[in-house]
Specification:
Length: 175
Amino acid sequence: MKPLVQVGQAYMALSEGEEKLRSGMFEEAAASYNRAMIVSRTIPEDEAYDHQGFDALCHTGLSGAMVKLGHYTEALASADIALRYFNRRGELNQDEGKHWIAAVRNRAAALAGTGRPEEALQAYQMASEMIAERKADIPDKEEELRMIEHHISTLQSTMPRKKTASYKAWWEFWS
């Protein structure tokens, strides 16, 4: 099979995963993301193809599906894989920045689901700052911020009252 065909099949599976995630078909979305990564592994390493970047996109969506399914440990693992790429590369284009924010948000939800509220709070605060400071268009930006603020206030109400001295803004992690 020619690499161009494999690339097309991988991106088609990624697109299917994103569509199924938006439609609330979370198990099917997870299967599509996994299929996309399997197909992309058949692309020869010597081809000019960003395997890690594609996996980061897939793991972002997969982490979102896993959160919705209540599989928080798997969601956290996928979000961390995506963030290893995005934190190193940064925002290279408009779409990738949206995936980066989604990975941070999915990681926050996974941390909350695994009983790590302090870390979840930090991740939600980071996602909120990333959305608020993003200059490019984000669909439903105000709704996203409202939902994140709701998660932050819910987490804060369940935690003992103390100021987190270790909190850093998202941009401070790379300086």
